[in-house]
Amino acid sequence: MEPVPSREIADMRGAAALPRKNGELIFDEAWQGRIFGMTVAMSHEACFAWREFQSHLIDEIAHAEREGETSSYYERWLRAFEQLLADKGLLDDGALAERTREFESGRRDDVF
Amino acid sequence: MSGAHDEHGHHHREPESVLSLRVRALESLLVEKKLVSSEAVDRLVSAYEQDIGPHNGAKVVARAWVDPAYRARLLADGTAAIEELGFGGVDLRVVENTAGLHNLVVCTLCSCYPHALIGLPPVWYKSFEYRSRAVREPRVVLREFGLDLPETTEIRIWDSSAELRYLVLPERPAGTERLSEAELAALVTRDAMIGVAAVKPPAVGR
Known about the structure:
The structure holds two protein chains of two kinds.
Chain A: H1 7-10, E1 20-21, E2 24-25, H2 30-44, H3 50-66, H4 73-87, H5 93-105
Antiparallel strand pairs in A: 1-2
Chain B: H1 18-32, H2 38-52, H3 55-66, H4 68-76, H5 78-84, E1 92-96, E2 101-106, H6 115-118, H7 123-126, H8 128-136, H9 138-144, E3 154-159, E4 165-169, H10 181-187, H11 190-194
Parallel strand pairs in B: 1-4, 2-3
Helix pairs in contact in B: 3-4, 3-10, 4-5, 8-9
């Protein structure tokens, strides 16, 4: 069965609102779609409530604005997601850094 | 992304960005922990890309533009005509814009909207301001959307409800005779199918 988009996610307002053009979501780069999809998938699986993620996202955006960062919306999303996973004990920062190095060096190249 | 060339003109595979690598690593870890599956992520991204956008409605409009018999069926029975293209789940009436007539859709009570065809409604569609002013002063509202209609053009307002949704069949822009159905569909916007915009001809070659 095709998943049905959630209004709670699609209709986020204010700074957290999803970037769109002509009503469609915009992912400037492929990884932005992946991180969006992972976050939505985990909320569907009840790993966390969407509003928990949304509040992390709003905090990250506010933080980035305060610091005058030029980071993109999905960069902030990524940080919010990592923070939420860490809070929930679902992600070990060290493991992520190590896995990133493995991909960078080409030692690992999973196909998704 | 900019294409990188070396002095011989060969294409390089651009080095993957730090963020892209990090997201790959994250996905790899989460898949390993069985917290997500890559197939589920694929399906979700595609569902949000497709269902949130106005693709399906645009296909209906483009078909009506190229196929007069389909257009007639669409205007006579919208619900049945969209089912022909595999879209459904909504009772639909399609209203056609012509040179002297412009249609505008609103839901004065809440935010009834043909999601299956044009995705999720924009925030303004649900606003009290739009819901009240579209009926009271449609010409002014349309002008604010950038659509300045001649005084001689009649404007009809259609109030969507839970029982019946409306979709505007916009006018096919001039100069698009050579375009394929798919190229035409790409011109059709959500706003044009709500009735707050006209479909613009392609920018190139004008």
